[in-house]
Amino acid sequence: MKKWFSVMIIIAILAFGSVIAFNLFVEHKTAEAIANIPEAEFPVTAMTLQPQGWQPTINAIGFVEPNQGVELENEVAGIVTSINFDNGSQVAAGALLIGLDSQVQLANLKTSQVQLPALQADYERLNRLYKQNSVSRQDLDNAQSQYLSMQANIESLKATIAQRQIKAPFAGLVGIRSVNLGQYLQVGTDIVRLEDLSSMKIRFTIPQTQLSKIRVGQALQVFVDAYPDKAFSGTISAIEPAVFYQSGLIQVQASIPNEGAELRSGMFAQVSIILPELTDQLVLPQTAINFALYGNSVYVINRSDEQGKAVDRVEQVNVEVLERSGSQALVKGKLAAGQQIATSGLVRLSNQSKVKIVPDEITTPTTLPQL
After folding, report:
1. Which residues contact 180 (CB under 8 A, 6 or more apart)?
2. How far is CA 249 from CA 223, 244, 324, 365, in A?
3. Is the Cα dihedral 359, 361, 362, 365 positive or negative?
4. What contacts 78, CB < 8 A, 6 or more positions away?
5. Phi-psi region at 250: left, alpha or beta (left = phi > 0; alpha = psi -120 to 50)
6. Can you give the pLDDT at residue 38?
7. CA separation (Å) from 1 to 4, 5, 6, 14, 25?
8. Sequence-ordered list of residues with C-beta below 8 angstroms from that of 199, at least 6 positions apart, any chain
9. What is the tens place of the pLDDT at every residue in 20-39?
10. Is the CB of residue 221 less than 8 Å from the CB of residue 272?
């Protein structure tokens, strides 16, 4: 019994020993295989850093306004008797656009104008007689009062008739009318929109910290969604004298020539105020910058000799992004002219990663066909 028990113990020890030995063998081979795996080499594109000029701007958003714009309304009630413009047409200053019925006022005006000469003659006759002491001063004053009252009545009737003629207060482009011939208009009815599009204005706000960088007459560029590839040039025409205390912003207005009437009021616009150009600046493509919550960085490519071979490795350098414009960014950091900066293929990189510089087209992703 003891002999059988001893044999079983020996067999168990051999079994467990073989399992342990096998595991140690596998771990050794795995470590050896891992040690012999070549270090990963990531493809990147690169650029040589060279100082260059940078055009700084102050960017803002605003809405386009006309040089002059008004919604024409009627001052008095009445029936539309004439419409003297076409929708969307250009009209001159003072042009009659809408006429309201004024037959009663014209008749009253004619009556007053007929009576005026007689009252004038009576006043002049009494004035001569008064000088001859033939009539009293009261008679002369009554005649003068009637004559001047009729003159005032005529002027009042002319003004009333003018109120029933809606004219263009300035030259401009009319929109689509909201009234029809024969329609009775209540006081204050919207008739048509009139805008002077010869030049446009844009109103926007900037932080008060930028106030020292702008002035009246300073050049700027405006971009609108309707013409994404076109920059409209203008100048600052006015700066609000007070800062809005709740937001710390200050309002600015700019004037923009609009000879082709391409800009229309109400357009959303992006504004770039042009500041003096900076020289010898570090400018990088935004694709070369690794944007992160804890800070922005770039990968500088350094070449070294490792076991007789030239090897390129990246060094992560923190930078501060000062401004952005399109695909470019103005940066500040521990960078120097002549350094090579990785511009794409940054996703898998870390500090001291081994890289291989390749042409741009190799790392450019393939464009999928449109369905």
Report:
1. 80, 83
2. 21, 6, 21, 43
3. positive
4. 100, 101, 102, 164, 184, 185
5. beta
6. 62
7. 5, 6, 9, 20, 36
8. 67, 255, 256, 257, 258
9. 766 666 676 566 555 555 67
10. yes
- The segments of the chain whose pLDDT lies below 70 read 1-8, 12, 14-19, 21-26, 28-38, 361-371
Closest CA to 226 of 208, 249, 252, 200: 200
Q: What is the DSSP string of 209-269?
A: GGGGG--TT-EEEEEETTEEEEEEEEEEEEE-SS-BTTTTEEEEEEEEE-TT----TT-EE
Q: Which residues pair with 58 in a beta bridge?
A: 273
Separation in Å, CA 337 to CA 110, 261, 280, 302: 89, 47, 10, 13
Domains parsed from the chain with CATH numbers: 41-54+279-363 (2.40.420.20), 58-66+196-274 (2.40.30.170), 102-163 (1.10.287)
Q: Please work out, in degrees rounded to the nearest 5, the angle formed at the alpha carbon of residue 69 by the alpha carbons of 63 and 75.
A: 140
Q: Which two tokens stand for residue 76?
A: 């008095």
Q: Which one, of 188, 184, 197, 173, lies nearest residue 95 by Cα?
A: 173
Other beta carbons less than 10 A from residue 212's beta carbon: 7
Nearest to 300 by CA among 255, 263, 334: 334
The kind and range of the H/E element at 70 are strand 57-73
Range list of β-strands (E), 107-226: 165-167, 172-174, 184-185, 190-207, 219-224
Tokens 């009209």: give the residue: 91
- Which strands form 184-185's sheet, in the order they lie side by side? 165-167, 96-100, 78-83, 184-185
Q: Which residues of 134-159 are buried (b: 16+ CB within 10 A; e: fewer)?
A: ebeeeebeebbebbeebeebbeebee
| Kind of pairing between the strands at 96-100 and 165-167 | antiparallel
- 184: amino acid identity, one letter: Y
Task: Take residue 361 and report the two structure tokens written for it.
Answer: 């087209």
Q: What is the dihedral of CA 205, 208, 209, 214, to 10 degrees?
A: 60
- The span from the CA of 45 to the CA of 40, in Å, is 16
> How long, in residues, is the chain?
371
